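Case study 2.
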Amino acid sequence: MRRVLRAAGAALARVLRPVTRLLRPVSGVGWAVLVVAAVGVGLGGVLGWVELAVVGVGALSALVAAVLLSTGRSTYAVDLDLADHRVTVGQRAVGRLAVRNTSRRRLLPARIELPVGRGSADFALPSLGPGAEHEDVFAIPTTRRAVVVVGPVRSVRGDPLGLVRRRVQWTEPTRLYVHPTLVSLAGAAAGVLRDMEGQSTREVSNSDMSFHALRDYVPGDDRRHIHWKTTARIGELMVRQFEDTRRTHTVVALSTCLADYADEEEFELAVSAAASLGVQALRDERDLTVLAGDGALRADAPSRLLDDVAELEVTAGGRGLADLAAWIAQDAREASAAILVTGSVADRTALRAAVARVPAGMRTLVLGCRTGAPLEVNTRGGLSVAQVGSLPDLPRVLRRVVAA
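Prediction:
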C-alpha cells in the first residue's frame, strides 16, 4: 500500500511540476486578479449577471495578456563590474552593467534588477538586436561602514500592471567592502607599539641581548658568556645572565557590546580607532592580533584586516569590556602590548577593574571613545587609561601615553 501511495505521489508531482513552474511568475496582484476573474465569470454565468461576467472576462484577459508578455526566452550575456571592491566611508563606489544579446533574433524590452544591500536598483533595458549591447554606469553611496552585497543581476519580463513577473538570474552576487575612516599614526605609535628589536621581559635566560646579572658557573654553561674580569678578581668562574627579550606583539581588543556605547556614532569611532592602530602595526611590520566580534580577525595584511572590520556589528550579546582582558589572556598571552578599545559608558573604576586579568608584564592601554569629549590620558605604572573624542585626536593620545 505504501509503495502504491509513493508511486501515486511521485506521478502527481511530475504532473504538477510544469503547472507550478508556469504559475511561479504570477505575483500577488496577479493571483488577486485571477480570483476576480474566476468569481466574475463563475457567478456571472450562474446568476446571469452580465456586468459581473464582463468584469471577470476583463480580468482574465488582462492576466492572459500578462502571461503572453512574460513568455519567451531571453539570451543575455551580462557583465557586472565594480571599479573597486574596497572603498572608504564617504567614497563613491562606481560600477558598470553591460547586457549583450547573444541570440540571432531581436529581444523585446525588459527590466534589469540589481539588488544593492537591502535596496534594489532598476534599469530599463531597450529592445536589443542580435549582438547589440546596452551599458549602464551606476554609483553606490557609502555613507557608513558595511559589507554591501551587489547583485545578483536579474532580468525581469512581464506586463505593465505587474500581474506576472518572470525573473532570470544572470550573475552571482559580489561583495563591496566599505572600510572605516582611518587616521595615520606614523611616528605617534612608535612608543606604544614598540619596537623592532624587542623589549625585555622579567624572564631570565642564559643567552639573550639584555644583560641582567652575574652568577656562578655551572657545568654546561656556554664559555663565551664567562665574565673574565670578575672571574680573575674573585678567583671563581662567573657567567653573564640575561633577560629574555621578545619582538613586540601587539593585541588590539575591541568591545562589540551594545552596553559599552552611548550611541552608534561612538561605536564607529571605536572601530576606526582600533582599525587605525591595527593598520599602523601591520605597516610597521609588527606582530599583531586583533580580537573583535566572534574571534580573531585576519591580521596578515591591512586590506584583509579592514575587510573583517567592515563586517563588525555592535550587539547586545557581543563581547564587552569586562570580557576583553580574559579574552587576551586566553588567545594572546604572549603579547607584549595590549590596547583595549571601548565606549564611554564604563567609568575609570570599571576600566581599571576590567584589565585586572591582563597577563602580568603586558603594557596596557585602555582607550575609551566618547564623541566630542576632550582628550584625557592617565598613566599609572604599566597601565594607561585614555579618552578620545574624535579620530584626529588619536595620534595626540598616543604621544601623551608615550610621554607619560
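DSSP finds nine helices and 20 strands in the chain.
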